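User: quick one, sequence for these tokens?
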């Protein structure tokens, strides 16, 4: 059973992860796992060293307002310098996640599922991945 669950989100696009967040929270509660919430933030105009102080307060506010006190939640921010898949996979390894729970959108007629971030994370991550729609 999972001990640490990574939940990658983008606070600017909640429609992509609104179902995944409920699933991740339920699993964390059910198994007593720690939930690591990751925001892969876009490149900032500021120095990358200031990225945490730019985005971490918003993520902490979100975590404090969204999750119940009966689960342990960590907040992590990473810079997306062009490849969110790489950042998610690296974060999963760094925090010791044994499960990634992430949302995805329904592919449009002209899109392939192979090109979604979720599909690429499932292929490249060193742990199990649950893709939630």
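Assistant:
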């Amino acid at each position: 059973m999972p001990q640490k669950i990574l939940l990658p989100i983008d606070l600017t696009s909640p429609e992509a992860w609104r179902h995944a967040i409920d699933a991740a929270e339920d699993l964390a509660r059910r198994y007593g796992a720690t939930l690591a919430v990751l925001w892969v933030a876009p490149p900032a105009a500021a120095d990358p060293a200031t990225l945490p102080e730019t985005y971490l307060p918003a993520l902490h506010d979100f975590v404090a307002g969204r999750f119940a006190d009966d689960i342990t939640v960590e907040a992590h921010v990473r810079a997306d310098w062009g490849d969110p898949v790489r950042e998610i996979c690296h974060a999963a390894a760094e925090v010791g996640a044994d499960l990634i729970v992430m949302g995805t959108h329904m592919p449009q007629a002209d899109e392939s599922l192979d090109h979604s971030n979720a599909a690429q994370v499932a292929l490249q991550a060193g742990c199990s991945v649950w893709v939630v729609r």
